[in-house]
Design goal:
It is a single chain. By secondary structure, this protein is mainly alpha-helical. A two-stranded parallel ribbon has the order 1-2. Helix 1 packs across helix 2.
Length: 94
């Protein structure tokens, strides 16, 4: 399997941007939207509904959403991994 090249400078820059703007953990929070499964609260309502959403529209992310978003952005959209920690683990193992 061929994997897109990761731009480490872009990755570091995006990580710093998200950290600087105070992005928090949110259960079920994805860059493209989503809801908290416990209470239905909507996450990232300013998102455009896609992984290409601007970092400034993100207030909360969960673990797998964070990794998925960073890798998508650091490869200029060349790498789209599945959502969910178990799915991502399986993808990496394959």
């Amino acid at each position: 399997m061929s994997v897109a090249k990761i731009d480490l400078d872009n990755l570091e820059s995006l990580f710093s941007d998200l950290q600087r703007q105070g992005v928090n953990y949110g259960l079920g929070a994805k860059p493209e939207g989503g809801s908290d499964p416990r209470n239905g609260r909507r996450w990232n309502t300013r998102s455009n509904g896609h992984l290409s959403t601007r970092p400034s529209t993100i207030d909360n992310l969960d673990c797998s959403g964070f990794i998925r978003y960073l890798l998508f952005k650091a490869t200029d959209g060349g790498l789209v991994i599945p959502d969910g920690s178990q799915m991502q683990r399986g993808w990496c193992e394959r």
